[in-house]
Amino acid sequence: MKIENNCVVRFHYSVAEPGQAPTESSFDREPMAVLVGKQQVIAGLEEAMMDREAGDRFQVTVEPDKAYGERREGQVQRLPKKYFGDRRMAPGDQVVLQTKFGPRAVTVMKVGMSVVDVDLNHPMAGKTLEFDVEIVQVREASKEELEHGHAHGEGGVEH
């Protein structure tokens, strides 16, 4: 079965900036599972997976506009320290905050006594990314997965 919208794909990946070591990899754990066409991975990666099938392994370079977008200036925000719990932080740390729009990755810029300055740009914004991808499984999505908008089972969401 070839990858197309509304199918479930389980895959391994590693991602790196050009000429650098991978910053993240799933090759040492369970493969990731996504419901294709639901923006669960960056656009450039999903586009590169289309029409491939289980067993395919490939590399793809994704430019910022198809990844996490360009960096935007003026995206520093000062937040009360209480939003970070008891976590010890230092400038450069990447933290995921729970917002009313869901989780958001931010970078700590400055830590004060009662406030923390964070950069709201995604940590990978403005970066060209190189992926190494191995497609493990491609299958039709169940009716329930289509209704819920995400993959269930191994590598997906457990209810």
UniProtKB/TrEMBL annotation:
Catalytic activity reported: [protein]-peptidylproline (omega=180) = [protein]-peptidylproline (omega=0)
Gene3D superfamilies: 3.10.50.40
InterPro entries: PPIase_dom_sf, PPIase_FKBP_dom
EC number of this enzyme: 5.2.1.8
Segments crossing the lipid bilayer: none
Origin superkingdom: Bacteria
GO CC list: cytoplasm
Gene Ontology terms for molecular function: peptidyl-prolyl cis-trans isomerase activity
Coiled coil: none
Alphabetical UniProt keywords: Chaperone, Cytoplasm, Isomerase, Rotamase
Top-level EC class as recorded in UniProt: isomerase
Pfam families: FKBP_C
UniProt KW Isomerase keyword: yes
GO terms of biological process kind: protein refolding
Main function: Also involved in hydrogenase metallocenter assembly, probably by participating in the nickel insertion step. This function in hydrogenase biosynthesis requires chaperone activity and the presence of the metal-binding domain, but not PPIase activity.
Family statement drawn from the similarity comment of this UniProt entry: Belongs to the FKBP-type PPIase family.
Entry protein name: Peptidyl-prolyl cis-trans isomerase
UniProt lineage: Bacteria, Pseudomonadati, Pseudomonadota, Gammaproteobacteria, Lysobacterales
